[in-house]
Amino acid sequence: MFRRGRNYYLLMGRCCCFCGFGANIRVYTSETAMGPWVIASDINTEPSGGRHYTLPCQQQVVTVVGGSTDAHGYAQLMWSGDRWQQSPDGRKEHDPQMWVPLEFAADGTIANLTNCSTWS
Questions:
Q1: pTM score of the predicted model
Q2: Using an 8 Å Cβ cutoff, are 54 and 115 in contact?
Q3: What is the pLDDT of residue 49?
Q4: What is the reported pLDDT for 37?
Q5: CB-based contacts of 87: which residues, under 8 Å, 6+ apart?
Q6: d(CA 38, CA 71)
Q7: Sheet containing 75-82: which strands, arranged edge to edge?
Q8: 105 vs 49: CA distance, rounded Å
């Protein structure tokens, strides 16, 4: 859960223990930390639905990128997810992560995640 401007955001997805195909990420919003919460969107499920995810990850954390601001003047936020069962050598402790920026529209909605290899 995090706050951006006047809104609180809660990002939740299926808890799939070490699933290599990833999980959804539902976005809930509220004007207060205690709710009521409203589901806004799913930012990791492709239009075909089911287990077709844009990023084959399970959500880990949202982090503030220190000193950076987004296009609207707010602190830049980075989403990260665990890529279970995707290490080249098959070792659990070598499973990679994905780190991608969260992009917001002017109205505060979060855009669908995209698979980007680099960003600044």
A1: 0.86
A2: yes
A3: 63
A4: 97
A5: 94, 95, 96
A6: 25
A7: 58-69, 75-82, 97-101
A8: 23
